[in-house]
Amino acid sequence: MRIAGIDIDKDAIRVVELQKGMRGASVSNHFKMPLVNGNLSEALKDVVKKIPEAEIVVSFDSRDFSFRTLNLPITDIKKIEKTIPFEAEELLPFPIDELIIDYQIIEKGEKETTVGIVAAKKEKIKTQLEALSSGGIDPKVINIAPSALSAIANHYLKDEKGVYAVVYIGVSDVDIGIFENGGPRFFRNIPLIGEWERDVCNTLYIFQATVRKDIERIYLCGSSGRDDVLKKEIAALHSIEPVQIDFAKDTEIKIDSEYIKALGLALREAEGKGFGVNLRKGDLAYKREGAETKKRLLYTIIFGGIAALLFILNLSVKYYMVESKYQAVTNEIRKNFNEALPDVKKIINEEQQLKSAAAEAKKKIRLLGGRIKGDVTALDLFKEVTERMPAEQKVILFEFSLEGDKIRLSGETTSFEAADKIKEGLSKSSFFKEVTLSDAKIGAEQNKIKFRINITLHEPI
Fold first, then answer.
1. What distance in Å separates the CA atoms of residue 261 and residue 151, rounded to the nearest whole number?
2. 15-27 burial, b if ≥16 CB within 10 A, otherwise e?
3. What is the CA radius of gyration of the chain?
4. 134 or 64, which is more confident
5. For 281, what's the count of Cα atoms within 13 Å in the CB-facing half-sphere?
6. Cα gap 56→269, rounded to integer Å
7. CA-CA distance, 368 to 20, in Å (whole number)?
8. 170-179, 248-257, 285-294, 327-336 — which one is most confidently predicted on average?
9. In DSSP terms, which residues pair with 244 in a beta bridge?
10. Are residues 432 and 456 in contact, defined by beta-carbon separation less than 8 angstroms?
11. pLDDT in tens, 357-380
12. Which CA distances in Å does 294 have to 115, 149, 288, 298, 378?
């Protein structure tokens, strides 16, 4: 498998392609594509030509995402997944429905879990995907630059303990990652303008003052031609002599320091170590044909193939075969028809009926959420849910998610009693086998109750 990390900066696109094998990852290609007159689209087209078979990983603009660490008094993964959206809504300055949110567990104890949450506005991600698409790039993963630092730290500084910082100096900005025993604790991006060296030092100082822990070591990577003043500032303010990461010690991955961010993005995907997220979620998810899609496509091809075969056989019988052979072929057609559509009892024209069945199958496949037995659709279930809501209560639904025989609802109402009445009303539906109120708590506004309800159907879709 080939994985390419792409680092887009203001002067050029830097690419590192890794070959992932049984013994680990090795560099199969790396190059820099200049941005001529700032023409990103044309440069991306040239990049694609050099990595035609690679899965692509890019980073989201460091200025357009929010990163937060959160300590949760739970350890169950399912409960953490349910809790993240509610907690993120209180931490972030934007409405939750305008954001793409992903997270990774940083540390897990006996009674609590520390998670790192990354959020970005959907429109910003969509704009970046459109820009990449104009050059023929459809990335499998949209990660963040700090994840590249995290992967570098886990690969080249894997034996480091305690608190340490990694500072990457790029062409137009600086990325700072602070780690403790390999786990990320803080990230920041600083533009290369003004007294940026002092901003880096102040960031490190403020972190120490906030968490009351000393940074024991500081590692530098990236453009070594710009770090002289930074080294002096760090030595003066922190009494630490920064050290350049030695990228030559890895026999499989040797690369110039200017490619470090692209390398980190590829390493995170290839090795799965360090902090990492993927902001391609929901409507912006990477479109990849799964097993179910292949199965549906196979059925469509089979129906179309049988229809074509019947048409050819029918023509051949009419023009080239004697009556006895024609009857034999007709019997074979009828047999194949009965095997393909055993529920059809009234047979008038096998060819037309099979074509109609194929068209109907395609139509049902395209329906939202498929169907359940009895041709009850997802829309029918949604209508049933809304009609079962208590008329005397104010209810706002935020989520209706249907998968298999499970429906997940989340919403907001006026009281705990109202949430119980919603559950009670849904329980009376003949569509639903089981209804449980999995969560109900007071929202940010004290007069509103947020709730989650899980529903089990009698039959899966």
1. 10
2. bbbbbbeeeebeb
3. 29
4. 134
5. 16
6. 9
7. 37
8. 170-179
9. 220
10. yes
11. 776 765 565 444 454 445 677 788
12. 36, 37, 10, 6, 22
CA atoms within 13 A on the CB side of 205: 13
- The verdict on pTM exceeding 0.70 is no
* Cβ neighbours around 373 below 10 Å, total: 10
Beta-carbon contacts of 112 under 8 Å, excluding residues fewer than 6 positions away, are 71, 72, 73, 74, 75
- Asked if 27 contacts 254 with a C-beta cutoff of 8 angstroms, the reply is yes
Spatial distance between the Cα atoms of 346 and 126, rounded to a whole number of angstroms: 51
Encoded tokens for 407 = 């429906």
Torsion, Cα 148 149 151 154, to 10 degrees, reads 180
Residue reference for tokens 């569509």: 431
Q: What share of the chain is helix, strand, coil (3-state, %, to 5)?
A: 45, 30, 30
| Six token digits for residue 200 | 């880096």
Half-sphere exposure of 249 (CA within 13 A, CB side): 6
Q: Which contacts of 390-397 are long-range, i.e. CB under 8 A and separated by 24 or more positions?
A: 390/418, 390/421, 390/422, 390/425, 393/418, 393/421, 393/422, 394/418, 395/422
CA 424, distance to chain mean position in Å, is: 35
pLDDT mean over 217-244: 86
CB-based contact 397:410 (threshold 8 Å): yes
Residue 169: how many other CB atoms lie within 10 Å: 24
In this predicted structure, what is the pLDDT of residue 201?
93
pLDDT tens string 252-294: 677 788 888 999 999 999 988 888 899 998 889 998 644 444 5
Place of tokens 């055993």: 342
**What is the pairing mode between strands 65-72 and 113-121?**
antiparallel
CA distances for 257 relative to 14, 32, 224, 460, angstroms? 11, 13, 8, 53
